[in-house]
Amino acid sequence: MDELPLFSRVRNYGEKVAISNTTSQFTYKQLLTDSAALASTLLGDEVDLDEARIAFLAPGGPEYATIQWGIWRAGGVVTPLCLSAAEPEFEYSLTDSEASRVIATREQATKVASVCARLEIPLLVLEDLQLVSEKSLPMLEPSRRAMILYTSGTTSKPKGVVTTHGNIQAQIESLIEAWEWQTSDRIPLFLPLHHVHGIINVLSCALWMGASIETFPKFECGSIFRRVAEDAYTVFMAVPTIYVKLIEALEDLDDQERSNVVEGFNRMRLMVSGSAALPASVHMKWTELTGQKLLERYGMTEIGMALSNPFHGERRPGSVGQALPLVEVRLKAESGELVTVENEPGEIQVRGPCVFNEYWNRPEITKESFDDGWFRTGDMAVLETGYYRIMGRLSVDIIKSGGYKLSALEIEAALLQHPNIRECAVIGHLDNTWGEVVAAAVVLEAGSNLDLGHLRDWCRDRLSHYKLPKRLLVVDALPRNAMGKVTKPAVKDLF
After folding, report:
1. What domain range is 477 assigned to?
2. Count of structural domains within the chain
3. pLDDT tens digit sequence for 257-294
4. b/e per residue, 302-311, with b = 16+ CB within 10 A?
5. Residue 33 resides in a domain
6. Model pTM greater than 0.70?
């Protein structure tokens, strides 16, 4: 019998509903039984998969948990694949992780079948497997590798972030304590499950605590609103883009419908925003509409969550709060000196049991990513009256202009307050005089227009003179990543 705390805890939840959707419910007992059978099938004549990498493709739901747990319980390392990935992306993840096989649901298998055939990697369709009776499963230690998630950061090819079972447990326990997860909690899951936001913050925390998850194939306001009005959830987690869509959809409802949905949101005990900076204007608008103060936090694939506004206490718009339990955080200046005072920017560095094990097959990059045991996040932040505020990525969000370090995120937050701007991306544009100047690409509200002169005049009371945009490009759309977050266009693509 495996000894991971996750599975020993789950046995206590028995017939309680773990995961449900519009057509069915699955109990914790079912997930344990099904994952044990899958683990036994994967083992075959072996006694331990001994950290063999197994990739899988499954939507959020009981199939996802069954596959994840089954691989773990057989001693393997899970590599979740993105449901919307293209063939080159599948091929890269499979070859780089050296996947021994791929498991997919029947609906998803066609997406990866040709890649598996070309690479001669066995493809197992979950529904077609002849599951065997449960056999003796390997003993698992927390130090064993458990998962590889691919993250590109801002440069080079995607890197495989390896976390151990101990890392994952620490990431879960930190959030369970900080956000006071309860067995009675109920949460919707519509986030992608190849990122830590969905995998750790929602799925893993809920299952660890014995809470109930309702899954959706994709985010859709109408479906969410109906369930919110029925008091289906106590906890809600989403990315800023989703909160913007929810606000727009709420404002389109008639008074009675809006009142029912707003009251449902208001009764939740916790609502969290993450994976991208939450504009203060969105934060305040959500509170105005629902009475809920969103809890914003900061994390990365390599560390899980590191900073969070408090569950009890001030949730400050534009801030990501303080270090979470089990996490140590420090700031280090570009000069190499530790930042020991407030209002001085520095790189966020993190230490603790939540921090990942290694980048897969990249020992040199792994070594370079640590500073005397502290993980170098590559994100700049400043401490303001006890709360951290993210300035952005060192490589793309920090604009060095005339000797100043400017935060592109701060400028974007200001621009988003303009009534004519729907979306924007701020980048540094090379300049002979200033080194870099502020350049903004914006998507306008329907039927509106904007020119650089007007924008600079509008910004003067909101931004210092050295932060005013010096270049402006109006575009029809901005690129987005898999989480729906606006990504930085390359300067060459804009100007």
Report:
1. 398-494
2. 2
3. 999 999 999 999 999 999 877 888 889 999 999 999 99
4. bbbbbbbbee
5. yes
6. yes
